[in-house]
Each structure stands twice: as structure tokens, then as C-alpha cells.
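Example 312, ligand pyridoxal-5'-phosphate.
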Amino acid sequence: MAAETTLMLSFVAAGDHVLVSRNTYGGTYRFFSKILANFGVTFDYVDTTDAEAVRKAVTPATRMLFVETPRTRRWRSPTSRRSRTSRAPRGSASARRSASSSTNTFATPFFQKPLALGCDAVVHSTTKYLNGHSDSVGGAIVCADPKDGEKIGFAQNAAGGILSPFDSFLVSRGIKTLPVRMKAHDTNGRAVAAWLARHPKVLKVFYPGLPAHPGHAIASRQMTGFGGMISFDLGSEAAARRLLDRVVVCSLGESLGGVESLISHPATMTHASVEPEERLRRGITPGLVRVSVGIEDVEDILADLENALAGV
Ligand SMILES: Cc1ncc(COP(=O)(O)O)c(C=O)c1O
């Protein structure tokens, strides 16, 4: 969130309009709607898989397209390049007064490279896969143009969104094993998603690696792996609660991307600050469960889920 704060302080001001992926992280929605909106910045949430919808939502005041991909409920592709280049001249975002940014927390640069897809800036929560050990909280912004970098650095210094030396050390230690960890998350993620898709108590599974997923084709073109983030629907909050109460290998937690498997209930955790109707519109149903598949022996993860589902 410090990285997102710094990004917004660097590129938007009162009177600006920002287009955001509809199903963005609940904390991002909270920051935009409950904090930045008080400073005269306006936000619209659009389906960023629909380039026409994005184009239609652009106004003369639109300053930024903020895309999060992949996401909790559905995998969506960034349409930023088309949306951005249709109106923006080349050069730094600072110079041309329009920017596209992508949050790449779930995929990491190991599987997806938004700068190569046309984004100006990429935001990561380093709390997740980049650090990978769930022992540090932080963020990073990566940008294509050094001028944008200077602007971000200035805002960071001025506003104070910095990482402590020890946390910086932890993240730099974690990044050294990013490729090995991501390959393991991906192997386990594919196995768990395929297993869940076959389970009779699971109504629906959301994982870009499943051929039935609407984003599968574009994910296969755009990403070199699908990672370990899966969500699935059990049909009701009661069913989700029973599962969450019974898991042992998967720990209940809002975070994600650590070597240990974490499981969460988006409607009451990550997306609790999104209004109930808006939450449903975004596909965050009461029975939705999200699992961040760790790098444990996959048989242990499957046995844990099997045992927990038996109680549902
Ligand atoms: C996509 C996304 N963005 C931002 C955040 C917030 O990150 P942090 O907890 O590092 O501030 C999260 C945390 O779950 C997330 O999933």
C-alpha cells in the first residue's frame, strides 16, 4: 500500500480521473475510495478485459489506468497498452500526463512482465512472493522511464514511504530464490487447481492455468507460468467457514505468496471494506475461498483440503 500511495502521489492530483480494474484488491479500493477521493481525485472501476469499455470510460481528465492482473476471483488481461497508446504520446508518464500501471503481485516478474506489455509502472507488494517468507511487509514500484523513477523517488522521500534497512535485507534475500520458489508454486498450483476442479463439493475454480478458464488463452500468451493463487466457490459462507475451520496445513491468513500455504475468505477478509453489493458485482461471493498454494509436498496440501472438504 505504501508503493500504491507513492505511485498515486507521484502521478495524480486534484481534478484527475483514474480508471481502475473492477475487481482490484479490497485495500486498493479502500485507499482510492475512502482516502484519495477526499483529495479531489475521481475513480471509475471498469472491466479491463473489455478494451471498448475502457475506451468509453476515458474522459479528458483521465490521468491513469490502474490494472491489477491476475486477481482473486477472475484472471483478467491488462488492456493497458491499447487504452494508453490510443491517447498518449510516447515518453515518460510524467511528461505526457497519462500513465498506465499494473499491479503484478500475484504473477511476479518471473511469470509476467507488464513493462514489456506496455505499462509505464508496475507495483508489487514485496510482502508476498518477492520476499516469499512472510516475514517482511513492503512494496516496490518498477518503471520504464528514469524520469518517472525520479518523480517516484522524490515523492517517496517527501512523503516517507520507505522500507527499513532490515526489511530491505529480507526482501533482497528472498528475491534470490524467486525462480525456484515460483516454479514450485506453479507446479503445486496446477495440481491443486486440477484436483479442486474435479471435486464434487467445489462449484467453481478460478485459476488461469485451467483450460476452462476464460482467461486461459491470454494467460498462456502473456505469462510463462500460472503460479499458486487459486480461488474456488463452495456455494455458501457456512460451507466456506467449515472448510476454513478444518484445514491444518493451510493456515488462515489474508496474505499470500509465502512458502507456506495460506487460505482466506475474501468476502470477510481481503475484500471486507468493499460494500456488500459492490462485492457481489465483483464476483466475491460468500462461498468464495482463496488459497495461496505454498511449496510444501503437494500430497500434504491435497490431503489437508480433502480432509477439510469432507466436513463441508
Ligand atoms: C494485489 C494486492 N495489492 C496490494 C496488497 C497489499 O499489500 P501490502 O499488505 O504489502 O500493503 C495486497 C495484499 O493482499 C494484494 O493482494
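Summary: The radius of gyration is 19 Å.
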